[in-house]
Hints:
Number of strands: 8
Shape: elongated
Order of helices and strands: HHHEHHEEEEEEHEHH
Oligomer: single chain
Radius of gyration: 25 Å
Number of helices: 8
Amino acid sequence: MRKIGGIVIIIISLVLALSSALNFQEDIIFANILLWVISLPLYISGQIMKTSKSEFKHRGKRWIFIYLFFFFILPLLVYLHVSYQDFKESIFVDDQFIIYESASSKLGVISLVGFIILIFLCAGRFLNPGLERKGLLNVIIIGTVIFLIGFNYFMFSDYRGIHKEKGLISSNWKGEKDIVSYEEMEGVFVEPYVHYAYFSRTSSDETRFSWKVTFQLSNNKKEVVYHFPIVTESSLEQMIDIEKIAQENHLPIIVGEMDQETRKWFDFDLELEGLNEARYYQFFQVNNR
């Protein structure tokens, strides 16, 4: 009976901890109170009831470290990453931006890769509290944190986007802006295609309908490309805004034809996401079957 009671308390504590993790972005103070004041004490009490004080002293450290990684460290890292991106966007983006991307070049990938590496390092540290040479791992974690702080500081001004009035805006890490007005464009080309999953990529990668928008510039300037990796309601709204701006500035907008394979994934993803098919059919100029 004591063991069953301990399991019930552990389940309740995990439900509260999950609620805390999900609320990190909305209310970090409430989330931490829920975690540290209510959930964690319940979790420890439940583990003691389920086993014994002596076994908890022997194995409790590992249980608590695992608990803290999933319900505190991981949500905290995600919270910091998202908060940085939100703050950066609030500084540079106004309501006239159709599309905003937090990096103007491939250098922006370094931040995301570093963030993922940090998660794996913390997982190695917290999921294996008895790990040998953990002092070295702690140093590596601290070094990665310092690198990410410094890198994101220097890359704060790096972003790009499509502005309704100004055109294509690109700012490098020095804060130097390059603005291409709509008068400097020759046309817009929309190319639908199928993004195929690869085993060499992350497990989150999957085959899906995607498309890219290419802004063809005059005066032999390099074309500018924006990728749309997944069908969503917001991405359709963005495309409609781009189409409207192209028409207002007398720019031809050409939508490429879909082959049978692309059309198959197009229909499948629309149905899977439960989107307004008619609007997508109209924009991509395909007939409803």
